[in-house]
Specification:
Layout: H1 15-20, E1 24-32, E2 35-44, H2 53-99, H3 104-124, E3 128-133, E4 139-142, H4 144-149, H5 171-184, E5 186-195, E6 201-211, E7 216-223, H6 225-247, E8 251-255, E9 261-264, H7 266-272, H8 276-279, H9 284-287, H10 300-308, E10 315-321, E11 327-338, E12 344-353, H11 355-377, E13 381-386, E14 392-395, H12 397-402, H13 424-437, E15 439-448, E16 454-464, E17 469-476, H14 478-501, E18 504-509, E19 514-517, H15 519-524, E20 534-535, H16 536-542, H17 545-559, E21 565-573, E22 579-591, E23 597-606, H18 608-650, H19 655-682, H20 686-689, H21 693-707, E24 712-718, H22 726-746, E25 751-758, E26 762-769, H23 787-796, E27 800-805, E28 811-818
Parallel strand pairs: 24-25
Antiparallel strand pairs: 1-2, 3-4, 3-7, 5-6, 6-7, 8-9, 8-12, 10-11, 11-12, 13-14, 13-17, 15-16, 16-17, 18-19, 18-23, 19-20, 21-22, 22-23, 25-26, 26-28, 27-28
Helix pairs in contact: 2-3, 2-6, 18-19, 21-22, 22-23
């Protein structure tokens, strides 16, 4: 098998090969049982490399079947010749027998030998030989091969028992064969599909003749299934070859030395935008060759030289013109087609569209320039160093600056990275990881600058082991490392503070409803921290029945993001079954891309003792009030009733006594009023009982500061403090308390400032936050912000209330009360 026979040195002087200009050549032996019986010779004068190993396998299969067919044909010919000779010999012997009785015995012996020989041929033939009845197909005689063809072990299983009519796949095939026999007396090479005893279908080749007088058919049958399959494969292969030209993803074009196009495949027609009749028989210069390329290069002289001497231009690349004016880059392979006299008759060109490749190359050049700019101006160090000793092979400006150099030229080819690791083992460890994984990401190591300054570097690099170098990037993360240390210190302080204050901490995944708690949380409820596991369902089950419904509503509002901060008191069942009061403060800290809350943090505190003390204080205060009222107001009102009765008795008799009774009634009423006011004063806030307004506000801020962990609270006193009436101080404190509660609960603020200003003529209280703010005219006072309550308290003491807020700009509550008016 030769890809280009005309170029082979062994055929350089062969006149046939040189005259025919044979390109692709294939010779195959035709073997039958390892004996050469023929040769298959194929040649192609148009293209090189036509015959491939895959085609060779198909041809080998076909030659195997061809050898069998040739041998069978020889056998058939020998058998026919022998039969004819035998018949002639029998006739001669018969005549000789009639003429010469003496020769009869010799003729009989010769006939017996001939019959024996024919019987041997009959029984051992590689084709099936048969005789069957014409009327119904009953098999009258058959050889071993015929029986085997139909799946029987011996002829005895068929002779006189089986009918050939049942073994035709299509019964009409036998009917047609019988009609041909009756018409012509014989049928040769009749192909038909037959069915074996087990149902297997095979192709049979019949040759038979009709003995109408004795009502039988004699013939032979060969299995040509392999031959039919080979024919099908060959037809498919030929179809594939025909389709190859039309469906190839290359332009295939054939033109004469004058440039007139004689053939173009479908791909070429589609790519160049022509209909086939629009381009055939037209010149290359009229169709696809532009006058000049966009670069200015004139292609016409090159193409004219190609038409004269195509052997000088086996390959080429250039711009070609489409019908609509588009330009496409094509890479062409050109082959001269010569006649028997060696004269150029046509040129075959195969072209591939390289437009995208050219565009990609141009884009690559632009990209390379872009990345070079990024490399030189990057804010992270980029480098390449030798694996063996760390010699810097390339580096950008930032890399040089990181190590204290003014430019990359000071380090490339001169400096070794090994000398800049604070701990040399860090580089050794990085090299081991590189060799193991091929790359290393986010590798932290301490590095030393040229002046000895130490900094933290974050490396990401990959290994090119074949070329013995490392490429990577480095960033200075010293500030981040300092921040991490500070964060770790802060986290440790927070942990110690929570442990010391015995406050529980929880971290809730709002999607999975899993809750992670600290040991103090479990200990607060009497559980072992090592085995305690908190979930939403367990928490709800542990709620006091009276608190459960309200707490579930608060929780649902919390996890939906309606109220991202909350502070609430409720009762939980401890491990021993007792109920414990808990103060819980929580906040949403993480939202997903859709704005849905997914994580919440919070603290819980045991306020059971506070609740018991509060309940006892309430009972004590009620008892004290009952005693006060009994000893003061009740006595005064009783005296008033007695004096009224006495006055009625003396009203008409003694005017002076009546006036004395009325004066006493007036005095008793005044005394009762004084006692009532004293009782009201006794109910003023506990914070004010323990000090002045400014100290009460300071303690209030301190209390909220322990609960609002994510908010910074400031309190400030300006001016010289002075006392105000108790009612004024009480209402100012309540307004400030409400404003602080709203800010910590609803504003989602990072900072809240409380300022109490004492001027000579007035007192001003300001509560300001930097939270989410609200539209003052759009918020109803009935929605839990306490604006109505603050307004009523300000009006009660004659103060001016001002509310300043805009969405996203925080809020400020200002209460101003005149010093004299408050008295």
């Amino acid at each position: 098998m030769l890809d280009d026979a005309v170029s082979e040195s062994s055929f350089a002087t062969d006149s046939y090969i040189q005259n025919q200009q044979t390109r692709s050549l294939l010779c195959l032996p035709i073997l039958n049982q390892s004996q050469l019986i023929g040769i298959l010779y194929l040649e192609n004068n148009l293209s090189a490399g036509v015959f491939t190993g895959d085609r060779l396998q198909v041809l080998n299969l076909l030659m195997t079947q061809a050898a069998v067919s040739l041998e069978n044909a020889r056998s058939y010919k020998q058998l026919a010749d022998y039969t004819e000779s035998l018949e002639q010999r029998v006739e001669e012997q018969t005549q000789a027998l009639q003429q010469e009785i003496a020769e009869r015995k010799q003729a009989e012996e010769a006939l017996q030998r001939s019959e024996t020989k024919f019987r041997n041929i009959f029984e051992n033939s590689q084709v099936g030989i048969f005789r069957n009845r014409i009327c119904d197909g009953l098999i009258l005689d058959a050889n071993q091969r015929f029986a085997n063809l139909y799946g029987f072990d011996s002829p005895e299983e068929m002779i006189g028992l089986e009918s050939t009519t049942s073994y035709y796949v299509n019964s009409s095939d036998r009917q047609q064969a019988v009609e041909l026999l009756k018409r012509d007396g014989e049928v040769r090479s009749y192909e038909v599909q037959m069915r074996k005893r087990d149902g297997t279908v095979f192709w049979g080749l019949f040759s038979s003749y009709l003995n109408a007088g004795d009502d039988y058919i004699e013939g032979i049958l060969a299995d040509i299934s392999d031959h039919k399959q080979a024919e099908t494969a060959l037809r498919q292969s030929e179809a594939n070859y025909r389709n190859l030209l039309q469906t190839a993803n290359s332009v295939i074009i054939r033109y004469d030395p004058q440039g007139r196009i004689h053939y173009i495949n479908d791909y070429g027609v589609k790519l160049l935008g022509y209909e086939e009749h629009e381009i055939l028989r037209r010149s290359l210069f009229e169709t696809i060759i532009p006058e000049a390329e966009l670069s200015g290069r004139d292609m016409r002289p090159f193409v004219r030289d190609l038409l004269r001497n195509p052997q000088s231009y086996p390959r080429g690349e250039g711009e070609n013109l489409c019908r609509d004016g588009r330009r496409v880059w094509m890479e062409w392979s050109n082959q001269a087609i010569l006649n028997e006299q060696g004269e150029l008759i046509e040129i075959l060109s195969v072209g591939n569209d390289t437009t995208r490749r050219r565009q990609a190359e141009e884009a690559l050049q632009r990209s390379e320039a872009k990345f070079r700019t990024i490399f030189e101006n990057s804010q992270v160090g980029i480098f390449r160093s030798r694996l063996s000793d760390g010699l810097l092979l390339d580096a950008n400006q930032r890399h040089a600056n990181l190590f204290g150099f003014d430019s990359p030229e000071e380090i490339i080819g001169l400096e070794y990275t090994t000398g800049y690791y604070v701990n040399p083992i860090d580089r050794q460890h990085a090299i081991e990881l590189l060799k193991q994984n091929g790359e290393v990401r986010s590798y932290e190591a301490q590095m030393r600058k040229r002046d000895g300054t130490v900094f933290w570097g974050l490396f990401s690099f990959y290994l090119n082991a074949a070329d013995d170098y490392i490429e990577g990037v480095i960033a200075d993360i010293s500030d981040r490392k300092q921040a991490e240390v500070a964060l770790q210190t802060s986290e440790e302080r927070l942990r110690l503070a929570l442990t010391a204050s015995k406050q529980g901490l929880y971290d809730m995944n709002l999607k999975t409803e899993e809750i992670v708690v600290n040991p103090e949380y479990a200990l607060m409820l009497g559980y072992n921290p090592a085995t305690f596991h908190e979930t939403k369902s367990r928490w709800i089950e542990s709620l006091h029945p009276d608190d459960r419904e309200s707490m579930v509503a608060i929780y649902n509002g919390f996890i939906t993001g309606e109220d991202p901060n909350y502070q609430v008191e409720y009762r939980l069942r401890t491990r021993n079954g007792q109920w414990k009061w808990i103060l819980s403060v929580g906040k949403i800290v993480t939202w997903n891309e859709s704005g849905e809350p997914i994580r919440a943090l919070g603290v819980v505190r045991d306020i059971d003792d506070c609740k018991r003390a509060e309940a006892a204080s309430i009972i004590e205060e009620r008892n004290r009030m009952a005693r006060e009222i009994h000893d003061t107001l009740a006595q005064a009102f009783t005296g008033i009733l007695a004096q009224v009765g006495a006055a009625k008795q003396v009203l008409t008799d003694d005017a002076e006594a009546t006036e004395a009774h009325l004066d006493l009634i007036k005095e008793l009423a005044r005394t009762g009023l004084i006692e009532a006011r004293r009782s009201v004063v006794a109910l003023r806030p506990q914070l004010l009982e323990e000090g002045s307004l400014q100290s009460a506000l300071h303690r209030l801020v301190a209390q909220l500061r322990t609960a609002a962990l994510d908010t910074t609270l400031y309190d400030e006193i300006e001016g010289t403090a002075y006392a105000l009436p108790a009612e004024v101080e009480s209402n100012l404190l309540r307004i400030g308390q409400e404003a602080l509660t709203n800010a910590t609960k609803h504003a989602n603020a990072d900072e809240i400032r409380v300022k109490l200003i004492y001027d000579r003529d007035q007192v001003c209280l300001r509560v300001k936050d930097n939270g989410q703010g609200f539209g003052v005219g759009c918020i109803s006072c009935s929605k839990g912000f306490g604006l109505l309550g603050m307004s009523e308290r300000a009006e009660r003491i004659g103060a001016q209330l001002t509310i300043k807020s805009q969405p996203g700009q925080g809020a400020e509550i200002i209460v101003t009360v005149d010093r004299e008016a408050s008295r």
